[in-house]
Design a protein that fits this description.
Layout: E1 2-8, E2 11-20, H1 25-38, E3 41-52, H2 54-69, E4 73-77, H3 81-89, E5 97-99, H4 102-107
Parallel strand pairs: 2-3, 3-4, 4-5
Antiparallel strand pairs: 1-2
Helix pairs in contact: 1-2
């Protein structure tokens, strides 16, 4: 898994590529929590994800809870069909704000 960060319209955009699994989840968790402390909005780009397991989903749920605790916005975007299916099968898709594009995520 690779993570890159950028600032767009005063939001932190986190781009992830590769596989989000038990090995990479701690890095993703730290990245998201740090971003949520620094920025009012964090947009997570999932378009480069090939695979995500339950540890990756758990990290995103933790980040969502942290965003609510800090009164921040946490938006997911660019979900490919395989990742969308995992979110849907685990019944967590409805708890996240999900958009198709980065522009929509930044406007949300």
């Amino acid at each position: 898994m690779n993570v890159s960060l950028r600032i767009q319209d005063s939001a932190r955009v986190v781009d992830i590529t590769g596989e989000v699994d038990l090995k990479g989840s701690p890095v993703l968790r730290k990245t998201l929590f740090d971003a949520l402390r620094e920025f009012k909005k964090v947009a997570l780009n999932l378009s480069g994800i090939r695979y995500i397991d339950s540890s990756g989903i758990a990290v995103m749920i933790e980040a969502l809870r942290e965003s609510q605790r800090l009164d921040r916005r946490f938006v997911l975007f660019g979900m490919n069909p395989a990742v969308y299916d995992v979110f849907k099968l685990t019944h967590v898709i409805r708890i996240f704000q999900v958009t198709e594009t980065e522009e929509q995520a930044l406007e949300a």
